[in-house]
Specification:
The complex is a heterodimer of chains A (281) and B (394). Chain A has 281 residues and is an alpha/beta fold. Chain A has helices spanning 13-25, 39-50, 65-69, 74-83, 99-105, 124-127, 129-134, 166-170, 182-192, 198-213, 223-236, 263-280, and strands at residues 29-33, 54-58, 70-72, 95-97, 111-115, 136-139, 144-147, 153-158, 173-177. The longest helix of chain A is centred in the C-terminal third of the chain and has 18 residues, at 263-280. Chain A is elongated and about 80 Å long. In chain B, 44% of the residues lie in helices and 14% in strands. Chain B is built from 18 helices and eleven strands. Chain B has a five-stranded parallel beta sheet with strand order 6-5-9-10-11, with helices on one face. In chain B, strands 1-2 form a two-stranded antiparallel sheet. Chain B has a two-stranded antiparallel ribbon with strand order 3-4. The longest helix of chain B has 18 residues, at 109-126. Classes of the chains: A alpha/beta (281), B alpha/beta (394). Chain A binds chain B through residues 13-14, 17-18, 20-22, 24-25, 27, 30, 32, 74-75, 78-79, 81-82, 160-164, 166, 169-176, 178, 213, 215-216, 218, and chain B through 15, 17, 19-20, 23, 26-27, 30, 32-33, 38-39, 42-43, 45-47, 49-52, 55, 93-96, 167, 172-173, 176, 184-185, 188-189, 192, 206, 208, 211-212, 215, 220-222, 251.
Chain lengths: 281, 394
Amino acid sequence: MKFSSTDNYVATEDLMVAVNGAIALERPLLVKGEPGTGKTVLAHEIAAALGRPLIEWHVKSTTKAQQGLYEYDAVSRLRDSQLGDEKVQNISNYIKKGKLWEAFTAKDNPVLLIDEIDKADIEFPNDLLLELDRMEFHVYETNETIKAKQRPIVIITSNNEKELPDAFLRRCFFHYISFPDRDVMQKIINVHYPNIQNNLVREALNAFYGIRDVPGLKKKPTTSELLDWIKLLMVEDIPPESLRMKEGKDIIPPLYGALLKNEQDVHLFEKLVFLNRQEER
Amino acid sequence: MFTDFFLTLRDAKIPVSLREYLTLLEAMDKGVADYKVDNFYYLARSCLVKDERNLDKFDQVFGKCFEGLELTSEDEEVVAEIPEDWLRSLSERVMTSKEMADIEAMGGFEKLMEELQKRLAEQEKRHEGGSKWIGTGGTSPFGANGYNPEGVSIGQKEGRHGRAVKVWDKRQYKNLDDQIEIGTRNIKVALRRLRRFARDGAATELDLPDTINSTARNAGLLDIKMVPERHNTVKVLILFDIGGSMDYHIRTCEELFSAVRSEFKHLEYFYFHNCLYERLWKDNDRRHVDSIMTWDVLHTYPADYKLIFVGDATMSPYEIAYPGGSVEHWNEEPGNVWLNRILNVYNRSIWLNPVPEEYWQATPTIRDIKRTMRDRMYPLTLDGLDRGIRELAR
């Protein structure tokens, strides 16, 4: 049972080793990388490739570690007690299972995605140390211990907004998805748009890496932006010739709004193109 | 088995622990790496490095420790001369045309290239056959002048010999090493340390402990209590040095500024030129018309504001020490009087300096201001910012 590239996801060799290592040793895999390089998609693909269900836990700034285990709805129990509801006798009626609980007790060993762990409070990873390490936790209200039947594959993504604590990192495998080079990018495009004309891809990639090389851009376009852009190009039926940059960067590629998401970047780019044109005259 | 490798990693200040080393061995034991060198490299990286800033250091150590692995004698050949056009194309890629023009003005591009080439060649020899790598980071003239903060790095090139470079020798993670690059996002992360939460404003959240408590007191009848949401209450006053020698650092400062702006609710900023005097301004174009008295600033913002200076502290000593020393106007009182005056009000204060720390000793005014700041001067790198913020948050 090994993970490798699938019909719609291109995995580089280092990524495969990291994923397979994490699966073999049953450790969580921490994935970092520029936004838009396919961190979240990775978990979906692993689940699909191994034929396992995927449980997603999207972390927000207000998420607490406890919510991943379970939540005790004290307020509704309080309300029920005022109304004299029978339910109130059994405390487990008010315990809501969290994503981790779901993953631990799922029938088929699932893939658990903890998405954007850095968005949460700085103590969040620390609160999950033991749970992820031993894959068990204790429910105080009902005095039972939930233990994972099989250890789920845990994929954690981070956008680097906060430093993660050392103790947490030590328990994880780590992989940094670096920006794909031209060959890998070509493969990624082929996987997503199999019917695209070859020369359109070539010209689009030229234009794309040209833009990424422009010094001083605030937000460089990444894979997901490139894929969006190519989709637009295909929809609009833009001929490849109009993307070609003669001897440098003298034209603004069509529909560049899909690539540059920041108005300062657009200004900078337009200015550069303008300068290049003047030089040619 | 790889104990030497492990120890060298620790020597290189990569935070690897025994636990991670054991994980690596366990993975080897389970045959994850398939006995292939590349896979072993990927596996080791994934087990031992947990932060992309350390990836570059890891690549270097790996290269050193497993030197000679799968090498043929042909590969051992050292490249001592670096073709000039290659250097040129490299620098053209990393610098904008304006920066190139600046360098040309400073003493000629040719000269600089020559110097760089010489230095690189020397370094190659000193490291003997071993080194595939020359990182000129701090020593390169580019770094020194601050035109190219990343430094220029030269690798064993694919093109020249037409053979593939080993993965770890590509050092593709060099940019992620801290010290060097400081981006808006990174700055925000560093600034987050400054956050201090407090509750005030409208009560919008349910306060469960208090609700339970008062319900119990209420003989079991539900009595709901609310509390206000938590907000960041830190107040920051930033003073930017602007113009003159600071022009070279504008980009870094812009990034710092845009990051702090979105991070704090109470943020006030003012500009000054070279040193602090009796006037500050908010709009640099209208500085002579539309300025504000420094006394007014001192009186307007209470002492619980945290004060951050951003400036290169590079000027003539007279600008600090003598009345009338300012380059722009006649100042009645010397700069250090003003500095001390403002420091007396705001006791949480730091000075961020975009000039690299190793050159501070060479500039007398940097030393002076550092002394006035009681050593609370930090370089404007991620690491420096981090230390500075720690000082502010103490």
